[in-house]
Specification:
Blueprint (H helix, E strand, L loop, with lengths): L89 E7 L4 E7 L8 E6 L2 E8 L5 E6 L3 E9 L8 E8 L5 E9 L4 E8 L1
Parallel strand pairs: 1-9
Antiparallel strand pairs: 2-5, 2-7, 3-4, 3-6, 6-9, 7-8
Length: 197
């Protein structure tokens, strides 16, 4: 004879849940006795009269920022003509490169709105007018011994101020050696120092 799995049916019993006897006295404990708020009707809790806990006397409290000294350079600057906010000159930092030249590329890293820049090296114009687009554009610059000051002058702020750009610097081997971003008003400059030893 073959064995078969025949399910066995069991009858489902629905009964009342375990009842709690309300008349039964609770067991008396010896370790802890907590007064009952329910059994003691004299307890009066008034929620309208607030008496907050105070950690310090009100006379010792001071206004937030009391005695704070603000650096005048950190505040808002006067806007230049035609713009709502002024973005001053920026120092982008310095980098070392011993190659014959560097490749400098820049692009508009935010909304492409017609930003244009002029590139100088040691106060000589390298490129008089670069239109910043979504893709990188740039120039190769021959390095001189010592300090090479690269200035990016914002010629405009485009249709969405300020003049925004990402600049990357590559050595003569094609390796990325520097990357940064700027926010400039028209006429402001971003300066990068490249040192050749």
């Amino acid at each position: 004879m073959a064995q078969t799995d025949i399910p066995v049916q069991k009858e489902l019993k629905i009964e009342a849940a375990n009842k709690i006897d309300d008349t039964k006295k609770p067991q008396q404990g010896t370790a802890l006795k907590i007064p009952s708020v329910v059994d003691n009707p004299e307890t009066n809790i008034d929620m309208t009269n607030r008496n907050p806990v105070k950690m310090i006397d009100d006379r010792e409290l001071v206004q937030a920022g009391y005695g704070m000294k603000i650096d005048p350079k950190a505040g808002p600057r006067e806007p230049k003509e035609g713009s709502k906010q002024h973005f001053a000159d920026m120092y982008l930092g310095d980098v070392k490169s011993n190659g014959k030249f560097v490749g400098i590329v820049c692009r508009d890293h935010e909304f492409v709105d017609g930003d244009r820049v002029k590139i100088y090296m040691n106060d000589r114009v390298i490129d008089p007018n670069i239109l910043l687009t979504g893709s990188f554009k740039g120039v190769n610059i021959d390095l001189e011994e010592g300090f090479n000051r690269i200035d990016f002058e914002a010629l405009n702020v485009g249709s969405s101020p300020p003049n925004t750009a990402q600049v990357d610097v590559y050595d003569d081997q094609g390796q990325l050696i520097y990357s940064n971003k700027w926010l400039l008003s028209t006429g402001s400059k971003a300066t990068l120092i490249i040192t050749k030893e």
